[in-house]
Fold:
Amino acid sequence: PDDPDALADAVLLTPEEGDDFRPAFSPDGRWIAYSSTRGLPFGAGSHLWIVPVDRSSQPRRIVADEGWNSDPVWSADGKSIVYHQLHRISGHLMFVAGGAGVWEVEVGNSRQRRLSGEDRIAAYPARHPQGGWVWSEKEERSWRMRHWDPAKSGSPAAASLLEAEENLWQPAVLPSGALIFQGEGPSGPGPRLIPELGPIVASPHHHIREVEDLSLRMSPLRAAFPAVSPDRKTVATGAVSLELIDLGTAAARVVLAPTQEPTGFPWIWAPDWSPNGRWLTVTVGAGFSDPRAPVDIWRVGTDGSDPVNLTADNSGNDALATISPDGRWIVFRSGREGQMDLYLVDSDGSNVRRLTQDPAVDTMPSFSPDGRRIAFSSTRTGNYEIFLLDLTEEGESAGAAVQVTRSPGMDVHPGWSPDGQWMVVTTDRWGFNDEIGFEPLNFQPYGELAAIRLSDGHVIRLTHNTWEEGQGDWLAKTVTGR
Structure:
């Protein structure tokens, strides 16, 4: 409404328990279609519902398939709804053939049919301005737009490719009738920082959080697995290659590039800095792979010199390494014994010892600032929670791990504050503010960032928006160690 005060007259149409997303009016304005987690276990998926605007009847579920049924779009005659369906496969929400598709459901009888091909990955449906439907469909390594008009062809298999650029998603129709898309922008190097202060223009996304005894200056970064250098001048990031990004100029340079065609994503990822800022560790190999996959921990100089595989002597999936504050040790997770556990190794790759031995997944380790404790994420309780493990002077486990978090959602990627009093984690404990699976480049959205005070377990929510908040990293205060 033009008058903001009119919102006081808003009527709640769906008071039932659960999260409701993406409302869409029918062409005659009498109905609203939406996706909802109503009646489903936490994180299990969403169904499609419709509700009359005049509240003359109760909401009615029209799609109850397993997975995330979302993004409803009404047909021009209001008789059907086209939507996006995403299945849970191998424990992850992933865009894989057969697991993500575009479907149509008839409103009157809930009869369904798949519009995109069975062997295709498809999502993001919209009505085409000239009739029919358009959606995004993945072909090999790029996304293209397909158009199908039932008035011209009775079979969705006849959907044709639009003559448009590659890697376009989420089509939408403007009031003028124009069709617009979300895209990845021009290829090649470009700015990675969300603009902030200094040489870069200030950004509305940059903000400061001051809650109780916690004061944070938060700045988002458009990069995977960010790790801030000890001198706070550079960010290391990795997804396909290891890059260093200057925090002042946003200039990026590649330190380590693939020597073979990547067979998974991410491929060179999860970097960490030595305390003196002269070298890094990084994971090389396919992410989200099984415990025996050929994934290794590499060490490389910040100028790209002397790259060496520290875990070349075994066939396990070795990943997510973190360097101790004094530079003596490297902790990482490995599947070399058939299950994901934590291991410690000297910084030259020698003297490997096992720290945990549990049937669950132990992963994402992080050294405390004093080097005496390791925080990690584990499925020991059936859900990813944060645990702490004490170390001896010799770098052995000093006892059983202690559970830190207990939440209904995942708590992952723990990161210590420089004083060791707080921990930042990525969590979906508060659910989601938008439908899952809406970002094609991030197929496993976690949710939000939270800070946890270790003295009493007090949790402070740091972010609250519709975007995925990935791994957070605190800025180091000093440069010490080797």
